[in-house]
Amino acid sequence: MSSSRIILFLSILIRCSQALSETMSRVAVVTGANKGIGFHIAAGLASSGLFSDVVLGCRDEARGRQAVETIASLPGTPRSCRVSCRQLAIGSRESHDAFIAGMTERYGKVDVLVNNAGIAFKGSDPTPFEGQCKPTLAVNFWGTVDFTEEMLPLLRKGSDARIVNVASMAGHLGQLRSRELQRKFSSPDLTKDELFSLVEEFQRDVLSGRHTGAGWGNSNYGMSKLALIAMTKIWAREEEGDISVNCCCPGYCATDMSSHRGNRHPSEGARNALIPAMMESAPSGEYFADFGIAEISQNYSPRGEIFRQRTREKQSEQRAFSFPEQQKSTAEDCRSVRCTALWESPLVDSSSNSGFSLRSFKHQREKAPPSSPFSMCVLSGNTPQVKVGEPRAAPDLVRDSQSPPQPRPVQKPMRNGQKRTHQIVSSASPVP
Question: What is the rounded CA–CA span in Å between residue 234 and residue 30?
């Protein structure tokens, strides 16, 4: 073999090694990850085998370290994945700077950012509505926007970079009483400055007590999530071709935020964030709900039914992808098949501080008849089968093998031809 061929072979080998190293060295960041939905998002990313590092951004470092130990000890977490925690308070610029400086020095890039951190005042909180406005927006919108903007340089250095903003069905357009405000928030040409002006106007009207008369919604939490959804669209437009930016609704989960009254386990809600974070050929500017891509309805009905599940026009051939342990969907699959592909992850009961228990389950995908956009988990031994096309009920979760399963509410089956839409959430209702 001539020396020129040897040099060519070595150069190809080096390039392949560098490409493989970049693929295997992927970094994910999850904010608000020490408990609840954020914890399960971090656990899902760590167990996927797609990331070398998963960093938990936590306001309370002690709880963050406990979450790190728990995730690292899960049977599904590979030893090749390093799980760590860094202090991060979304409402603090100083905390942002320290976090990003540490990430820049340690990794030099970020491949996936999941903005999960957020707050919501409980209905029993004595703080007046106007007193809840500023702190809610400071974390759920302003803090999240500032932190993400500061993270963009690191994300642009990542490979197949993703941003997933955890929103809520409470952020629907129907909460706005003004058609003009609905038009502004849903405009495809909405700019950052215009959005910021709208949010500032809402805050001023709340503090002056005239927000309802001006056509605003009557939920600080809902308005903060509506603004975050609008910001997702703006980022998707600005970062087109560089970063995939999507948002999701985890559903009404049993977490501290909902006083554990939700009908969905946080591990199930986390899937709505994990799909856009890990799927192949991810779209951008989309809203994920109930394990698929939802769309914005253009008719502003009195009930505020803005987000509805996309319906499938034709059957598409299912495809398998060579992802370790988990099989993901492409954007086209999410539009045509209403649940994720082969999905395997641990369920962790994090409601108790005294240890965690695990139950592994596997979701199997089937083609969905066009009559219904929801799926149902049917327990079959230790392996629930996901049958797409019927109303979805979460699998029963038990704290340990001795405890009986807890009953879960099951939605009524839908008639052929009917479409289910996200219902309006009032400001007095618990929010996911």
Answer: 21
Whether residue 374 is contained in a domain is answered as: no
Task: Select from 105, 65, 111 the least CA-distant residue to 86.
Answer: 65
Tell me if 340 is assigned to some domain. Answer: no
Structure tokens that stand for 19 in this block: 């490409």
Angstrom distance (rounded) from CA 221 to CA 86: 26
* Cβ atoms of residues 151 and 136 within 8 Å: no
- With 0-12 / 13-18 / 19 or more C-beta atoms within 10 angstroms meaning exposed / middle / buried, residue 17 is exposed
Q: What is the pLDDT of residues 51-92, one digit of tens each?
A: 999 999 999 999 999 999 999 999 999 999 999 999 999 999
Q: Is the pTM higher than 0.85?
A: no
Token pair 């929801």 in the structure block, residue:
374
DSSP code for 421: B
Q: Helix, strand, or coil here: 81?
A: coil
Asked if residue 18 belongs to a domain, the reply is: no
**Residues labelled as active-site residues:** 221
Long-range CB pairs of 187-190 (<8 Å, 24+ gap) are: 188/233, 190/230, 190/233, 190/234
Domain annotation covers residue 420 = no
pLDDT in tens, 96-153: 999 999 999 999 999 999 999 999 998 888 999 999 999 999 999 999 999 999 999 9
Total length of the chain: 432
What domain range includes position 179?
A: 24-322
Q: Domain with 98 in it: what CATH number?
A: 3.40.50.720
Contact 168, 222 (CB under 8 A): yes
> What pLDDT digit, counting tens, does each position of 170-220 carry?
899 999 999 999 999 999 999 999 999 999 999 999 999 999 999 999 999
Could you give the CA distance from residue 285 to residue 237 in angstroms, rounded to a whole number? Answer: 7
How many domains does the structure of the chain reveal?
A: 1
- Site of tokens 């799926």: 375
